[in-house]
Amino acid sequence: MGLSKENLKGLVLALVSSGFIGVSFIIKKQGLRRAAAVSGVRAGVGGYYYLLEPLWWVGMLTMIVGEVANFVAYAFAPAVLVTPLGALSIIVSAMLADIILKEKLHNLGILGCVMCIAGSIIIVIHAPKEQPINSVLEIWDMATQPAFLAYMGSVIVLVFILVFHFAPRCGHTNVLVFTGICSLMGSLSVMSVKALGTSLKLTFEGKNQLTYPETWFFMLVVVICVIMQMNYLNKALDTFNTAVVSPIYYVMFTTLTILASVIMFKDWDGQSGGTIVSEICGFIVVLSGTIMLHTTKDFERSSSFRGIGPSSPTLSTRLYTGNGDLFVKLDEESGPPDSSMCSRRQESY
């Protein structure tokens, strides 16, 4: 299926966005490390000294540039095309983490990068065309349909549970908590970003959408969701290895965003079963690539994992392990009493 002119614009912007965002992960983590060294309080445990660290702001500005490009991309192309292309940011951050942060990446991780690229190409080839929208009111109707309201309600409930129950108990030992909050809020922010971007696009074309309160409501949702995402992403980056946070965040965020977009914008309506299957297969290839990047990460050589033996820890071990001072001796300790999700010892061991 050939790319339409609109989809091509979205594709280019999405690729540029992924490059900037991938670089920003590395710069921001360097800033977080400097801030923690000066203040003695890490962002992962509530420190905010990084706000005074210039390097962190450089990373933040880099991420903003990437997010702006991403924002515009959603105005031209459907989320099922734009969102999976974030795999490039995983490749960029993993490679730079290996070179700059010395977070060793096995040679097999290169295969994961290739799989991410191959899967992205499949998705691009079979991506649906952007459906024409003439007013923000059309998007509002999509956002208030029962199916999407049910999804949105489920997301809000899950976020509250993660923030107030799991985060205080095991947020610093289980990477899925902080990244889960980011991903859930991210799926809502993308829907609002697409709605707001489309509204601004129509406004620039001469169809003023700023007179509608729905446009400003979507803007408010974007601001709230982005603030929450940045807060918990900082916690995740400061607590866990960059090459762990990046792929897990990507997998969860992309999956939830595609689900939300399919529900709200009906991206798959009008596509053949074969085309949809091809898109899903491409997405699975991308996910497999990110998982391979994660599981081939050499934690043993990282100074933040002192005491690990020569054998490589399993995937579930890595999911429940933070930086050095949070490392869990799996064969000696039992899990915390309040939540099975926080369990540090798996029966499979």
UniProtKB/TrEMBL annotation:
Signal peptide: none annotated. This is Probable magnesium transporter. Pfam families: Mg_trans_NIPA. Keywords: Cell membrane, Endosome, Ion transport, Magnesium, Membrane, Transmembrane, Transmembrane helix, Transport. It is a multi-pass membrane protein. It comes from the Eukaryota. Its main location: membrane. Acts as a Mg(2+) transporter. Can also transport other divalent cations such as Fe(2+), Sr(2+), Ba(2+), Mn(2+) and Co(2+) but to a much less extent than Mg(2+). GO terms for cellular component: early endosome; plasma membrane. It is found in: Cell membrane; Early endosome. PANTHER family: MAGNESIUM TRANSPORTER-RELATED, PTHR12570. It comes from Sphenostylis stenocarpa. InterPro entries: EmrE-like (IPR037185), Mg_trans_NIPA (IPR008521). GO terms for molecular function: magnesium ion transmembrane transporter activity. The chain crosses the membrane at residues 6-27, 48-65, 71-96, 108-128, 148-168, 175-196, 216-233, 240-264, 276-296.
